[in-house]
């Protein structure tokens, strides 16, 4: 059997194991080790398996992962999600669809200090969904926006998914954060306009859900109360954008600052400890995926399959736009079945060489993949954000939440098409 044939068998093997419900890390590790054994024999496989698990994670720069996760937990403990919502509500709560729109902007605000889709959806939904239901919004309009807007946590810097993409592809995380800022803001604005026009179609709903307009004094007070969100965002992202600190250093500064904010809030010691434990657990899971992905990538690279596929795609003379459009379908299917981190580690060894050969900017592709991960976060059967929102607010029906996110999925696909047509939205600021 030729190495190339072994490569095809490896890809098929991963698909079969995932279909059988085997965890992603174990699937990649088992197939990668088997591929190495088939190509290099016992001694070569033994040598690589002795060194790869250490070398794939023994990098000081990887400390950015637990630090950004920790910053998100401390930001939650400090009550920043609630403060972001109250500030957004003071400014836009009185317009048609004001509360769902405020929820979108609150998610965007909290995303600037969190970096996690699940954490953003969970924390914001507890604050906003009950209030929207009391105000007269149906479950679709109350829960749908927070489920999809929670996904902004993986797009707006500091984004955990972009950090993972950076690790998987060796693309600068600072460039990814810079490239993600405009798409993140644009996404929040499109969601807000979408909600406004959806609500405006039902005059009775507009009348029933309208709340009094906040005075300028109330707006100023609510905005001032959210000062920690602004400070944390400016310190972390400002340090990265200006070059004062690397992403790793900025993550450390942000985690320390968020801890101070959490300690200033009474009764949060238990929450802080829980955040430390969950950070350790999440980091261990990610590192196991990284080790498994490294073994799989080395084995697949040995078969020359990525190189052969890249040359084949280059030979088709597809434009970058057409290639990206063709990649939407497989990524949408994967997003329905596995989480975003796993999706990146599984696909990058095969897809990224093709992207490089086609001349597609790696930062543009990173934002492209992140947007599709956003869609996957609300698409059944996995749709983790939908389940998180349902679990955070008792009484919500799963079907209603899934129906509520459908218009936003269409908006997401439209935004992805816009980025493909005008890549300067991402690359113009680099």
UniProtKB/TrEMBL annotation:
InterPro entries, per database record: DctM, TRAP_DctM
Keyword match Nucleus: no
One Gene Ontology MF term: transmembrane transporter activity
Topology within the bilayer: Multi-pass membrane protein
PANTHER family assigned to the protein according to its UniProt record, in alphabetical order: C4-DICARBOXYLATE TRAP TRANSPORTER LARGE PERMEASE PROTEIN DCTM, SIALIC ACID TRAP TRANSPORTER PERMEASE PROTEIN SIAT-RELATED
Any one GO CC term of the record: plasma membrane
NCBIfam families xref list: dctM
Keywords, in A-Z order: Cell inner membrane, Cell membrane, Membrane, Transmembrane, Transmembrane helix, Transport
Protein name per its UniProtKB record: TRAP transporter large permease protein
Transmembrane region(s): 6-39, 60-81, 101-129, 141-165, 177-199, 220-244, 286-306, 318-338, 350-369, 375-393, 405-426
